[in-house]
Amino acid sequence: MKMKQPDIFKNLKRGPQIITWKDASLIAGFSGAHAGYKIVDAGSGSGFLAIFLGNLVRPGGKVISYEKRKEFAKIARENVKRAKLEDIVIIKEKDIARGIEEHDVDLITLDMAEPWNVVKHANKALKEKGFVVSYSPNIEQVKRFVEECKRHGLRHELTIECILREMVIREKASRPQNKGIMHTGYITFARKVKREGKDKEHGRG
Amino acid sequence: MKMKQPDIFKNLKRGPQIITWKDASLIAGFSGAHAGYKIVDAGSGSGFLAIFLGNLVRPGGKVISYEKRKEFAKIARENVKRAKLEDIVIIKEKDIARGIEEHDVDLITLDMAEPWNVVKHANKALKEKGFVVSYSPNIEQVKRFVEECKRHGLRHELTIECILREMVIREKASRPQNKGIMHTGYITFARKVKREGKDKEHGRG
Amino acid sequence: MKMKQPDIFKNLKRGPQIITWKDASLIAGFSGAHAGYKIVDAGSGSGFLAIFLGNLVRPGGKVISYEKRKEFAKIARENVKRAKLEDIVIIKEKDIARGIEEHDVDLITLDMAEPWNVVKHANKALKEKGFVVSYSPNIEQVKRFVEECKRHGLRHELTIECILREMVIREKASRPQNKGIMHTGYITFARKVKREGKDKEHGRG
Amino acid sequence: MKMKQPDIFKNLKRGPQIITWKDASLIAGFSGAHAGYKIVDAGSGSGFLAIFLGNLVRPGGKVISYEKRKEFAKIARENVKRAKLEDIVIIKEKDIARGIEEHDVDLITLDMAEPWNVVKHANKALKEKGFVVSYSPNIEQVKRFVEECKRHGLRHELTIECILREMVIREKASRPQNKGIMHTGYITFARKVKREGKDKEHGRG
Q1: Considering only CB atoms, which chain A residues are within 8 Å of B35?
Q2: CA nearest neighbour of C191 among C31, C25, C27, C23
Q3: Within 10 A of C58 (CB to CB), how many other CB atoms are there?
Q4: What is residue D38's three-state secondary structure?
Q5: What are phi and psi of C183, to 5 degrees?
Q6: How many Å from the N-terminal Cα to the C-terminal Cα in chain B?
Q7: Residue C95 forms contact with D (CB below 8 Å)
């Protein structure tokens, strides 16, 4: 396979754990990210998801990506430069669990071990109808994140996992590739919807 | 699941066969579609893929969607209006197998029974490094499309299929949904790359 | 598809929740069930898993299947008769959580809501190297069952899930079926292995 | 994972391409193999499928496994000895495409590059209601095998593929394993059913 990555990822330095292309596509596609979106992302890691999203939100959009580990923030910044997205993607060397400085955010993407620590801040930072999306390998992380979202009145929309198989296409030998990645992570979408909690209390209480 | 569709799909009329959200996300994500892209699409069907892409390419981009069946072209146009994308998405009541009128196209998406009939036209219409993507339920369609791409010097990049499972997340009952869609279609990416054929002949011949 | 079921299942009455053929095959294949095996099963439900296993263990083997609900025990018994396995498969109208009356059992299969309640009894009833296998839809059930197995010194061997897709094979239209069962249950294998616990304590403690 | 294989596979020598445990389980489970079955198998390879089936058909059953390559026949025979199944499993150093010497066979399993060459012989060797099962990595092989079965009046019952995922079960980290085998092969079941062809001609012609 020659097409290992979208063009925007070319020439980037790879850290140990980068989001897969399929998951980045689904996060973007399901949350409707497009030009003008204001996105908060954490943790940056090598910056791949931030760059993927940065490519989508220009012109007029912004991706602010939090990364508390100095060495990763450095790699991420370098990658942003290589992708020529310095005007769009900002790497902040900060711990997002301590707070989100942005407001009226369209989308918050969380690729970190304890996404539930960010829900309270996400709820404040998001604009009405905005999404907070977590990307976690383990089902326990999903559960705790969903619980915390509900506790703060964010509506749990959807949790998905995607098994992607590459196909071998030959004249007499077409089949899925034999080996591959069986599991990357669960993607959870929660949404800020006005008075959802209230409606429920009144309507069903 | 409340989140049956991205917001851009709300209020649209559904025809019998619309592309799934996951496949639209992967087509867009893997081909790098973003603001400013010039996309040719066929057939429109109910217009869902054209609208999904239209949302991504604004401002500055364009989606020209070919549909030869009058009744579908009508539904697609109505849906484009409901999605408020009339300035971006054009529904052309024409058979794309007869030719593509556009030039310097970034991406051509083919959700039709015989995508191989369009390869010759796609090759002319695409700009250097542009993608032609087919979306087909059957492996025979994939094979014939890939062969035809190779015959015209387009590079076969990747064929994928995606099994997406929605998760049920409850305090004591987390699991994938029991029923769902097992298979939608194979997505094939081919690319216009200058003198690929020649290089091969010289380099390896 | 004409082949909806193995021949042994023909003419059986179906209750609401029967084990799938694929899962029965994996439980039998991975635990090595064959002629002569002594198997304890619970709950019987409509008796499908007991009958599937009964077919495998004859001659010389036995399947004792516990079912606490009277109406299910009746259906299961009738199905055993229809499958002509009365000499091999015994339906016991008892709650297995209260104890297992058998000894030197090769395999215990648990298709019930709270399989962890049976682990203590399974540990006593199993012969050395025997398997206890749970079949549960939810990950929380798997976790609790695995914990309980470990607590009783049974070795957790393997937890699997199987996505099975039927293929449509036509001259010009080969593909996986579009709809199907996305998830049935997780199958967990634990094994009675002498002094496993002790070795661990001494060897690693 | 400690449980890499069923006990019957322990101590066997592994050749380059052995059938997976899951596929062996499904072949056996779906075709109803049990004590007393007379099975023809080809090619033996390292003998794993023959041994798996040999374990199931004793007492009273037989597995005759054809292998035309001398070195594989030798390995397979050694493995049969290690599994202590010499009385049940016979390795024949012959090319099954030249003919099947057995009659009244319950099940024929074909794990070979060109299973269609055996269909004519299988049709003669099978008893009424017997199964011939092919196991092939590529869809083209499945198609040609199915066509040949139909041409000889064998009924195509089912073609399946199975994606099996092992689960990691930990207190705070439960998920499918990250890497694994994405694709092994398609399993096709065809069946000898009296006058199927004739009924069709008369009934529908």
Answers
A1: 34-35, 56, 58-59
A2: C31
A3: 20
A4: strand
A5: -155, 135
A6: 56
A7: no
How far apart are the C-alpha atoms of C105 and C119, rounded to whole Å?
13
In terms of CA atoms, which chain A residue is nearest residue B26?
A: A25
Question: B36 CB near a chain C CB, below 8 Å?
Answer: no
Kind of pairing between the strands at D126-136 and C126-136: unpaired
Please name the amino acid found at residue B169.
I
- Dump pLDDT digits (tens) for A14-57: 765 677 889 999 999 999 999 999 999 999 999 999 999 999 99
D164 — contact with chain A (CB < 8 Å)? no
What is the tens place of the pLDDT at every residue in A51-110?
A: 999 999 999 999 999 999 999 999 999 999 999 999 999 999 999 999 999 999 999 999
In angstroms, the CA C119 to CA D74 distance is 44
Q: Are D194 and D128 in contact (CB under 8 A)?
A: yes
Report the distance separating Cα B171 and Cα B181, nearest Å: 25
Cα A42 from Cα A97, distance rounded (Å)? 9
Locate the chain B residue with the closest alpha carbon to A7. Answer: B32
Question: ∠ CA B12-B13-B14 to the nearest 5 degrees?
Answer: 110
Q: Which helix (H) or strand (E) holds C82?
A: helix C70-82
B166 vs B162: CA distance, rounded Å = 13
Tell me if ipTM is over 0.85.
Answer: yes
Mean pLDDT of C50-56: 96
d(CA B67, CA B45): 7
List the beta bridge partners of residue B33.
none
Q: State pLDDT tens for residues C144-177.
A: 999 999 999 999 999 999 999 999 999 999 999 9
Which of C160, C182, C196, C200 is best to mutate for the D interface (most D CBs within 10 A)? C160
Among D164, D7, D47, D130, CA closest to C37: D7
Of C56, C174, C191, the CB nearest to D34: C56
Classify residue B45 by its DSSP letter.
T
Task: Tell me if chain D has a CB within 8 Å of the CB of C193.
Answer: no
Find all residues with CB under 8 Å of B177, minimum gap 6, and list them: B165, B166, B167, B168, C182, C183
Tokens for D6? 């069923």
State the best of B8, B34, B181 to mutate against chain A, taking most chain A CBs within 10 Å.
B34
Could you tell me the domains of chain A? Answer: 7-204 (3.40.50.150)
DSSP E strand stretches across D11-141? 38-42, 62-66, 89-92, 105-110, 126-136
* Chain mean pLDDT for chain A: 91
Question: Cα–Cα distance between B29 and B10 in angstroms, integer?
Answer: 21
